[in-house]
Amino acid sequence: MRLRLNRLTWPYLAWMLLFTLVPLLLVAFYAFTAYDESGKLFFTLQGFRNVISMKDTVALSAFGLKQLFSLDLQVPIYVNVLAKSLEIALLSTLICLLLGYPAAYILAEHSRRNRNGNNLLLMLFVIPMWMNALLRTYAWLALLEPRGIINNFLGQLGLGPVQFLYNDFGIGLGMVYNYLPFMILPIHSILVKISPSLIEASEDLGANRMQTFSRVTMPLSLPGVMSGVNMVFMPAMTTFLIPDLLGGGRYLLIGNAIERQYMVSRDMTTGSALSIILLVFVLASMKFLTRYEKENNEGGMLL
Questions:
Q1: 101-130: pLDDT as tens digits
Q2: Rounded to an integer, what distance in angstroms lies between the CA atom of residue 237 and that of residue 246?
C-alpha cells in the first residue's frame, strides 16, 4: 500500500518540481548573476544593491507617517514601494475580514437551515469567481471612470463627478472585490461545521447570544479566519493586475515594480532580486500565520 501511495504522489512531485521549484531556482539564478559587456556570466549582488540603493530616494508615504507625524524620512524607492504595498494589502485584508465574517456567518446560518436544498446565497458569492479576474476588474473601470455609470448617476444628483480611480480607493476597492470570496469561503466552511449542540449547551448554561458568539463561535472559527487572512493578504501583497488597471499604470506597488523590471527595463537581475525579497517576506508572513493558527488549534477552543 505504501508503494502504491508513493507512486500516486509521483505526478504531483513532478508537477511541483517542474512548475514550482525550477522557476524559483531560475529566479534565484538571475538574482545573483549578470552578464558583462563581453557576454560573460558572473556572480553579483548588484540587484540587491539596486533595491536598497540610496541614490534614488523618496519620502516614505506608507501608513500615513508623513501626514500624521510630519516626517520627511527619505528611503530607497523600492523600500517605499514595499511599504506602500504592505499598507494596501493589510487594509484590504482588514476590510475583507470586516465584511467577510458577517457574510460567512449569515451564509452558515442559512446553510444550517437548508441542508437538503441549494444554498443560493453561497452560490451568488461563488459565481463571480467563475469569471476571469481581468474581466471583473475591467467592469469596475466602466463603473468608476469619470464618465462611467456611477459618476453619471452622481452627476444627475449634483454630487459628481468623483475621482474613484487612480488612487488608494480604487485599488483597494478592486482588491476587496476580487479577494472577498477568499475570505468568506474558509470562514464559512468552519462555521458551518460547528455543532449546534455547542451553541445550545452555551445557552443552557446561561450565556446570551453575544457571550455565546464571543466565547464559543468566534474561538472555534479562528482557524478559518487565519486561513482567509492568508488567502487574501498574499495575493493582495503581490498583485500587479489591479494596480495596473485601476491605478492607471501610474501606481507603483511591488508587483508592478517586478513586472516593469522584467518587461520594460529588461533588468532581470534587479527584478529577480525584488522577487527574492518579496518571496522571503511572503514566506515569513505565511510562517507567522500558520504558527498562530497551529497554536490556536492546539489551545483550548472553549474559553
A1: 999 999 888 877 776 545 777 788 888 888
A2: 16
Q: Is the pTM of this model over 0.70?
A: yes
Are residues 144 and 150 in contact, defined by beta-carbon separation less than 8 angstroms?
yes
Q: Rounded CA gap, 237 and 289, in Å?
A: 15
Whole-number pLDDT of residue 302 = 41
* 206-214 contacts, C-beta under 8 A, 24 or more apart: none
Report d(CA 88, CA 90) in Å as an integer: 6
In CATH terms, 77-298 corresponds, of 1.10.3720.10, 3.30.470.20, 3.40.50.2000, 1.10.150.130, to 1.10.3720.10
pLDDT for 297 beyond 60? no
CA–CA dist 49, 70 (Å, integer): 29
Most confident stretch, 198-202, 216-220, 293-297 = 216-220
Predicted confidence band of residue 29 (pLDDT cuts 50, 70, 90)? very high
Dist CA 161 CA 155 (whole Å): 6
Task: Give the span between the Cα atoms of 185 and 190, in whole angstroms.
Answer: 9
Q: What H or E segment, with its residue span, contains residue 118?
A: none
User: In the chain, where are the structural domains located?
Assistant: 77-298
Q: In a 3-state reduction of DSSP, which class is residue 83? A: helix
Q: Where is pLDDT greater, at 3 or 50?
A: 50
CA 123 to mean position of chain CA atoms: 22
Beta-bridge partner residues of 34 = 42
Does the structure show a pLDDT above 70 at 5?
A: no
Q: What is the mean pLDDT of residues 31-35?
A: 91
CA distance 87 to 95: 12
Contact 258, 240 (CB under 8 A): yes
Our measurement of the distance from residue 5's CA atom to the centroid of its chain's CA atoms, rounded to an integer in Å, reads 34
Query: Quick check: 221 and 190 in contact, CB under 8 A?
Result: yes
